[in-house]
């Protein structure tokens, strides 16, 4: 008789936090405690548009609404939409034939679009318009027979979607370490494109190295790294030199959130950590810390940042100064499929990006 060993995980026991007094006694803090809060932070227009698209689809058609991959890279957003009736899948073959499917903000390849058609799925394309711009650039330069060097992280959903537009003309360059591996057919017909959520500095370092190998390397017609990624990195660059600690709110699979941690450290922060939620903050990080910088990735709702600020206030960091480096007023309309349905229902609202919501006038 064969016995089977079943592993039963231990129940999660909430960690008891050390008191503010315990933390204060562990290491002296020189200077007043304060928080430098980055602005802009959080939701960008493309994320806002994608999240609203799922919300409006659930309202208009009722659940279930299927979504390929995470609509945006944030655990809280995904779980909230699941509670409302969204079902997240990895591939189209997990969706019942004829059902309604939303493509995530990161975009998909033509092969995924065709797979959805083959299953008679009713699709809604919530791809960020700035990602769509990169897709169109890829198609255009492939048509003109260029070699396309796509700077980005292999395996990331956005990179997979862009690569799928012109795989026979494109190579993925993960970073500086890949530059020496690049081969092209004609050094006079080479252009670079990029994932929209990269570190601006790292991307340009890679471009400069590529240009050393291919001096006539062409630039994309306009910046591929999106305005929100650039703005959030610029804000944290300003805060980091004064910060003993930088907290970045965002999920582990959010490329732009992970980059913010790296940028903070590169620009002078003594320490930086990424957390999904306030309860992941380790109070030992506050030992000896006078100034805390706080920011969030482009797919993070503001309430998660406020939870972190509330925790910081409990530990004596109640003085919050917002550091504003840019104003964002980008507006994207909802996907055309949603707009048509809403118009038929007499709903004239639009999906508005940035800090505004679709139901605001």
From TrEMBL:
Residues binding dimethylallyl diphosphate, per UniProt: 73, 106, 156, 254-256, 299
Keyword Cytoplasm carried by entry: no
Molecular function GO terms recorded: 4 iron, 4 sulfur cluster binding; 4-hydroxy-3-methylbut-2-enyl diphosphate reductase activity; metal ion binding
Residues noted as binding (2E)-4-hydroxy-3-methylbut-2-enyl diphosphate in the record, renumbered to the chain: 73, 106, 156, 196, 254-256, 299
Active site (UniProt): 158
Keywords: 4Fe-4S, Iron, Iron-sulfur, Isoprene biosynthesis, Metal-binding, Oxidoreductase
PANTHER family according to UniProt: 4-HYDROXY-3-METHYLBUT-2-ENYL DIPHOSPHATE REDUCTASE
Role played: Catalyzes the conversion of 1-hydroxy-2-methyl-2-(E)-butenyl 4-diphosphate (HMBPP) into a mixture of isopentenyl diphosphate (IPP) and dimethylallyl diphosphate (DMAPP). Acts in the terminal step of the DOXP/MEP pathway for isoprenoid precursor biosynthesis.
Family membership: Belongs to the IspH family.
Protein name: 4-hydroxy-3-methylbut-2-enyl diphosphate reductase
UniProt organism field: Arthrobacter zhangbolii
Taxon lineage: Bacteria, Bacillati, Actinomycetota, Actinomycetes, Micrococcales
Gene: ispH
């Amino acid at each position: 008789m064969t016995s089977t060993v079943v592993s039963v995980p231990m129940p999660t026991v909430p960690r008891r936090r050390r008191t503010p007094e315990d933390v204060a006694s562990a290491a002296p803090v020189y200077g007043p405690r304060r928080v430098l809060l980055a602005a802009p932070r959080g939701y960008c227009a493309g994320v806002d548009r994608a999240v609203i698209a799922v919300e409006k689809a659930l309202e208009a058609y009722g659940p279930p609404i299927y979504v390929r991959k995470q609509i945006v890279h944030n655990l809280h957003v995904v779980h909230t939409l699941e509670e409302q009736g969204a079902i997240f899948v990895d591939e189209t073959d997990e969706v019942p034939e004829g059902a309604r499917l939303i493509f995530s903000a990161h975009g998909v390849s033509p092969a995924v679009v065709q797979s959805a058609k083959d299953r008679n799925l009713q699709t809604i394309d919530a791809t960020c318009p700035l990602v769509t711009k990169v897709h169109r650039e890829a198609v255009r330069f492939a048509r003109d027979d260029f070699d396309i060097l796509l700077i980005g992280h292999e395996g990331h959903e956005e990179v997979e979607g862009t690569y799928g537009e012109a795989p026979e003309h494109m190579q993925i360059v993960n970073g500086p370490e890949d530059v020496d591996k690049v081969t092209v057919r004609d050094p006079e017909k080479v252009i670079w494109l990029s994932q929209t959520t990269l570190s601006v500095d790292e991307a340009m370092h890679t471009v400069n190295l590529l240009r050393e190998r291919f001096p006539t390397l062409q630039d994309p017609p306009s910046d591929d790294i999106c305005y929100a990624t650039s703005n959030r990195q610029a804000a944290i660059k300003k805060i980091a030199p004064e910060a003993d600690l930088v907290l970045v709110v965002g999920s582990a699979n959010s490329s732009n959130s992970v980059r913010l941690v790296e940028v903070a450290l590169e620009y002078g922060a003594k320490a930086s950590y990424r957390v999904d939620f306030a309860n992941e903050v380790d109070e030992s990080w506050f030992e000896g810390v006078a100034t805390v910088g706080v920011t969030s990735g482009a797919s993070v709702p503001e309430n998660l940042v406020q939870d972190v600020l509330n925790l910081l206030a409990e530990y004596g960091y109640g003085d919050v100064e917002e550091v504003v480096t840019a104003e964002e007023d980008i507006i994207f309309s909802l996907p055309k499929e949603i707009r048509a349905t809403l118009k038929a229902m007499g709903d004239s609202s639009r999906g508005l990006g940035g800090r505004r919501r679709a139901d605001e006038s």
